[in-house]
């Protein structure tokens, strides 16, 4: 059978995947255990944030290196517009998941609502904190509205560039190559690998400050569930743009409600805690139960990948 993005060759591109994993993990971990660790990870440290933006592009570098080894094109990366309606879903869904996670966290008593935004600003360095608090005071009760609108517009637009740096690798390269295991297992396995990729920065306090060991476990679980959602968007849209938008929306709009949550244990409350993971898992169960999780068949106009698999095996 000719190979296509939805019917990959039974001969897994072993050499390419090995190159991908070595480069993606090697570059990311070198940055996180080198410059980031020496600078000291802390919210608001702009130099550290710049290094972490660079980390987001390491899966793309890895994917390019792997494709060079495989000597094949980019058809299965789905660098196209695809089914545009799913881009709207990708834009709004992470924000809705963040809001539901926020409301459940408050309802369960795992955190308190604080619309002043002080829960976020008080974690910033003094100079940044004073400027942020002055801006929050100027906006008054409009702060949550402005924060949401800003995160859904300029936040998503700017962040999509860096998010594509990851998605071109995880969904655009690795997921199609693991799909011979089945689409859903491939999505979950990519998510697990993606979660482990985050380990050094999680240990340093990202997302789960004060919980280095539990944090790595929860990040893996978070990424498995999220990988199923992003993987579904990749399949349903037939485009890597959809998970890129969703990733950007999660990092900006989906995280915005956390700025208005006080006293929450990061392992429990919010979108990255147990509550948020549970909300996303419920969505995955619904997608699976309704037969949507694997996405529709490939676009009728999708060209086939050449049947020559030279360079796919070591």
What would you say this structure looks like, in words?
The chain is mainly α and 314 residues long. The protein has a domain at 79-289. It contains twelve helices and two strands; from the N terminus they run ααααβαααααααβα. It has helices spanning 14-39, 46-56, 58-70, 85-107, 118-121, 126-139, 143-178, 183-197, 199-203, 212-237, 241-254, 274-289, and strands at 112-113, 261-262. Strands 1-2 form a two-stranded antiparallel sheet. The radius of gyration is 20 Å and the shape is globular. The chain starts with 13 loop residues before the first helix and ends in a 25-residue tail after the last helix. Mean pLDDT is 90; it is low at 1-12 and 298-314.
Q: How is this fold's topology laid out?
A:
Elements: H1 14-39, H2 46-56, H3 58-70, H4 85-107, E1 112-113, H5 118-121, H6 126-139, H7 143-178, H8 183-197, H9 199-203, H10 212-237, H11 241-254, E2 261-262, H12 274-289
Antiparallel strand pairs: 1-2
